[in-house]
Amino acid sequence: MIVQDGVILATHCAPASPMKNGIIVSTDMGKTWAQYDLAEFGPRSGTRFHEKNSEGWFRLDLRTGWVTQADVILGDSWLAPDGRLHVVWQKEPIHPKLRDLYFPDIKRNSHLCYAIVKDGKLVAKRTLFSGGETAGPLRPTGYIGHPRLHVTPDHQIYILCNLVGTTAETKAQTGNYALRIEADGSVSTPVRIPLARPIPGIFFTATPRAGNRLTEAADLLIADTIDGKPVARYARIRFCERT
């Protein structure tokens, strides 16, 4: 959604909309509304409105309404001083009921992914960790908490993520993990973070995208519940070499 010069623009979510590519607009700050279907672009969802240009046009970024019958969940990004954009995201499998009913041949696997973009071009992309029906009994998940980046002052990149054991043998491995991205692009094996109380849901970091300075330790704001009541928790994680 965007609000600019008395105009409000928002979009439909394609999989849940009767329109192929619906947008919602108000030119009087919400007093009246209109809906339009840009059907010529196919079943897509708007992801971002850009501020209008000098001619008064708004630019809208679109994504396909259904991506390989699964969810692609953006985790985090960091724009390095050399102009390279580091991106981490989670690819979740199709819902089991939808798979069983409509796509029985699809295997339900989850993937933690990482890429680097420079000057608008994809220069590197890789899957860091996979798990599921055919990829292993320990899988990454974006539903407990999206993967996040932590960058130290010397530009060492860490990825904070959650892994879930899907079998009786791996259930005890469920927890919060960190991976390190090396300068040559290699990735460490996931190391479990020894928290006294594991992160059960959504968490946020003090990201430089929000204006925070780079720090050695990762500061986390965690959504949790205690005795059935929602609470916010704080945790600080320091990284060190294994001894």
Q: What is the gist of this entry?
A:
This protein is an all-beta fold. It has one helix at 96-102, and strands spanning 2-4, 7-11, 22-26, 34-37, 44-50, 59-64, 71-79, 84-92, 109-118, 121-132, 138-141, 148-151, 157-165, 175-181, 191-192, 203-205, 218-226, 229-237.
Characterise the protein shown here.
The protein is mainly β and 243 residues long. The chain has one helix and 18 strands. The protein has one helix at residues 96-102, and strands spanning 2-4, 7-11, 22-26, 34-37, 44-50, 59-64, 71-79, 84-92, 109-118, 121-132, 138-141, 148-151, 157-165, 175-181, 191-192, 203-205, 218-226, 229-237. The protein is globular. Residues 65-69 have low confidence and may be disordered.
Task: Identify the notable features of this structure and list them briefly.
243 residues, mainly beta, five-stranded antiparallel β-sheet, four-stranded antiparallel β-sheet
Draw up the topology in text.
Blueprint: E1 2-4, E2 7-11, E3 22-26, E4 34-37, E5 44-50, E6 59-64, E7 71-79, E8 84-92, H1 96-102, E9 109-118, E10 121-132, E11 138-141, E12 148-151, E13 157-165, E14 175-181, E15 191-192, E16 203-205, E17 218-226, E18 229-237
Antiparallel strand pairs: 1-2, 2-3, 3-4, 5-6, 7-8, 8-9, 9-10, 11-13, 12-13, 13-14, 14-15, 16-17, 17-18
Shape: globular
Count of helices?
A: 1
Structural class: mainly beta
**Helix-strand sequence:** EEEEEEEEHEEEEEEEEEE
The percent range for helix content is under 10%
Q: Number of DSSP strands?
A: 18
Query: Which regions are unreliable across 5 or more consecutive residues at pLDDT < 50?
Result: 65-69
Task: Please give the alpha-carbon distance between the first and last residues.
Answer: 49 Å
Mean pLDDT across all residues, rounded?
85
Give the C-alpha Rg. 20 Å
